[in-house]
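Box S2. Input/output pair 1.
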Amino acid sequence: MIRFLFRFLSLVALCIAVVAGILDSIASVSASEVMVTPLGIAWLELSPYTLSVVSDTVQREWGPNAWGFAIRWLLPLPAFAVFLALSLMLWMIGYKRRSPAGRFAA
């Protein structure tokens, strides 16, 4: 059941990454130059309230250094790349190799 949850969350993150990539490509074509939306700007445009809630929560629970890491390294990255990496990570957590001896092997 837990493996299914990780696989499902991986699919959701992949769908978000695809939508973010499509929006970036549409913006790039319409502007006639390459445009990539950073995660921080995409998050602010989508829901500015949740960004402040997450900021307060991370600073309270993990300390200001963790939020500094997010500000410096995570939020400037392209949104589609962050969600693709998250999708890959969740898929790897939920992955189980097939048994080489078959279904009924001990």
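Box S3. Input/output pair 2.
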Amino acid sequence: MPDKTPAGIDPRGPRFSAAITSVLLLIDVFLALIDLTDAAFWLLVVIALLFLWGVVAPRTAPWGVVFRKVVRPRLAPPEELEDPRPPRFAQGVGFLVTGLGILLHLLGVPLAIPVAAALAFVAAFLNAAFGYCLGCQIWLLLQRFGIVGREQRAA
């Protein structure tokens, strides 16, 4: 049976996106901690929507487009390409974390915004600075257990 793994992506693209996302999340944590809750809330909504965009339509997500159009042409070709599914899954995890923070904030949980933004920041920073993608690691673990990433066999 032929391999149906999607075409690979440049692994530097998700790291570039993670760097920008890290900065936005750090700003969000700062805004929440200095008690600019409305600004922190709306920034987290924007970040959550960017995560969602990365899941639904990754080819048109803003940071990916900037990487492909502006940054990648100035770099040497990547040594190898990676499966796009784990980074896309990681975007979903980011959406889940930030979305949960938004929901908990709306339900009145006092530190929901800075905690959610800080958790997402740690994950984004690890990817940007060290190339360690927590969401991708979760994907690989789920794949090992046969939950994601396996083709369904025809009955």
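Caption for Box S3: The radius of gyration is 17 Å. Residues 12-144 form one domain.
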